[in-house]
Amino acid sequence: MHPAGPLALSLGSLGLLRLLGAPWGWSAAAALGLGLGTGGWRLLRILVKTAPRDLFGLYVLLRVRLQLSRHRRRCRSVPALFAAVARRAPAKAALVDAASGAVWTFSHLDRVSNALAHLCRDRGLGAGAVVAVFMESRPEFVALWLGLAKAGAEAALLSSHLRREGLVHGITCAGAKAVVFGTELGAALSEVSSALGPGLQKFSWGPPGLGPIPEGSQALEPLLEGAPKTPLQDGPGKGMDDRLFYIYTSGTTGLPKAAIVVHSRYFRIAAFGYFAFRMRPDDVIYTCLPLYHSAGNIIGVGQCLLHGLTVVIRRKFSASRFWDDCVKYRCTVVQYIGELCRYLLAQPRSPAERRHRVRLAVGNGLRAPLWDPFRERFGIARIGEFYGATECNCSVANLDGKVGACGFNSRLLPNVYPVRLLRVRPDSLELLRDSRGLGIPCAPGEPGLLVGRIDQRDPLRRFDGYVSAGATRSKVAHDVLAKGDQAYLSGDVLVMDDLGYLYFVDRVGDSFRWRGENVSSTEVEAALSRLLGQADVAVYGVEIPGVEGRAGMAAIADPGARVDVPALYPALCPLLPPYARPVFIRLTAQLDSTCTFKLQKTRLRGEGWDPRVVPEPLFVLDPQKGRYVPLDGEMHQRLCSGKSGF
CA neighbours within 13 Å on the CB side: how many for 294? Predict the structure, then answer.
């Protein structure tokens, strides 16, 4: 492309910004002119290489902003937008249950969610009421929270892995007045029913006979059969800035936190995915990601509710069935996390992996070494990698297929989308500040904490936080990019190259990512400490060669050699979900701590799980035996060679 071409396009796009009334249009134009005038050929090189990417990103940003502004002015909500989609294509398949083959048309989904809305009103679960949803991924899950939203109620979307204390916390911290659970999870809810109090309404949905259910529960299906299937005559009157539902995120400390998702956030995430990755109205999306997370429920199901696409739901990921499902249901888009791609590549070759129609894979966590092998082996034309969290205001996306990148930020017009990488103290979330008290930006190639400037008046920049006000405050910093501003602290370390491409590096603080889930070190430490009679425990993430994310490792203070390690894993299973259970155990005489009694993990994390380095007993989880076994030199070699089973 001729150098004048992108320059003219960039200046033209800035003219468009001014016509749209964007407050940063003139400042961006001035910055560009000044940069080209003083930076010489280096900036011109960046402009030539990044102009097509930046202009497409600008187009996506403006399109989402304009649509969202129009919906806000007209006081539309997600249920209202879905109702319009259902009217346009009532007989089209909206949701498909890959396990049973059941097909839910848009008309059927609309009628069932309408019946739920009437039922909620009749049971006193109208505007502002919170109802917990505890169910595996299936079309009923979507109908539930959509019906609750039509009544003005707010769903608390619980992880199906929660048990005991975590399950009680998830229901109570959001102030739920009722819980709707799948019969497949009735036993888990029965375990904690007495701790939830007599005032909680309980409704079951699913076939009977799958296990015990709590006393006092009512079957939902008979109640829905008798409820009206027409829309509520007097809707809740909610708009884009009102609460839609809660998604739980482990964050960095403690038990899961209920992140607030408003209607505008749901629309923004889903619409950005649709336009950024060039989805089409006739696409069929295959997702085996859990619907209690934003990736499956917003980026995936959101395309169904807002844009009329068909979404095929598989309750749990199956590497052997993945491509067969895609062929059977004629899928054109699949969702992934990095680990899922690694499992698919480890499968024996099959005819289905090349007979499918998939042209786009959307997700996050795909490591650079797997990028091309995944794309080439399975014949996928495009990979749409992104970075984001349910509650964050600094999501980014890879729009042009740059291998390994999770997104970008324009080097020439950074204020168009004000996210930054800032320096922080090692092993903490504390920002380093300059002489003016502001955050210190990272240079290209320098890892830093991703932050996003908060503007509550702007639906693309707002931060809605959590149900807990304290948890919300902990994610906000002041005087970060300018005096008097506020910024969201992501808790993630990224690095940016010279062209503005962003690459995920690691999480900071007391959390790590394993099996596609954020693991709270504090939560695991608390469970282990209680189990071991309040022993000191330090939990941290460590790398296993060839495995995505960081595996949990627990260092346990055991001066009297009293811990029965082989019996530890079975005892942990009822307390923690599978992804949070430590893979490695280290026994030590004592743990280092600071003067404020905070456990020091830097040395432990650095020593890892190499028996040649660690002079203390080490153990590793044997997935086949279901218990921890001694980690010796031979086992260490097997793990390093990729024969770990993880």
Answer: 28
Calpha distance 436→130 (Å, rounded): 44
What residue has token string 């999480």? 507
| Burial classification of residue 48, based on how many CB atoms lie within 10 Å of its CB (0-12 exposed, 13-18 middle, 19 or more buried) | middle
Tokens of 163: 């048990």
Residue with tokens 């289905």: 352
Q: Which of 211, 166, 157, 163 is nearest to 184 (CA)?
A: 211
How many residues would you count in the chain? 646
Residue 101 Cα to chain centre, angstroms = 27
Residues 412 and 426: their CA atoms lie apart, in Å, by: 29
DSSP one-letter string for 419-476 = EEEE-B-TTS-PBPB-TTS-B-BPPTT--EEEEEE--TTSTTT----BSSHHHHHHTE
Count of CB atoms within 10 A of residue 12's CB?
10
Indicate the SS3 state at residue 147: helix
DSSP alpha helices (H): ranges in 293-380?
294, 301-307, 322-328, 338-346, 352-355, 368-378
Residue 131 three-state SS: strand
- Which stretches does DSSP call E strand in 572-640? 584-588, 618-622, 627-630
Give the pLDDT band of residue 512 (cuts 50, 70, 90).
Answer: confident
CB 450 within 8 A of CB 421: yes
Q: Are 502 and 510 in contact (CB under 8 A)?
A: no
How would residue 254 be classed by pLDDT, with cut points 50, 70 and 90? low
**347-636-609-527 Cα dihedral, nearest 10 degrees:** 60
Beta bridge partners of 293: none
In whole angstroms, how far apart are CA 481 and each of 45, 211, 484? 27, 54, 9
Q: What is the pLDDT of residues 310-359, one digit of tens each?
A: 999 999 999 999 999 999 999 999 999 887 898 898 899 999 999 999 99
Q: How far apart are CA 593 and CA 449, in angstroms?
A: 25
Q: Could you tell me the two tokens for 373?
A: 């092998």
pLDDT at position 513, please? 81
Q: How many CA atoms lie within 13 A of 389 on its CB side?
A: 31
pLDDT of residue 9: 37
**CB neighbours of 646 closer than 8 A, spacing ≥ 6?**
544, 547, 551, 583, 623
Query: What is the Cα–Cα distance from 309 to 145, expressed in whole angstroms?
Result: 19
Residue in this structure with the two tokens 């502004």, named with its chain if needed: 69
Average pLDDT over residues 532-556: 87
Structure tokens at 358: 């998939």
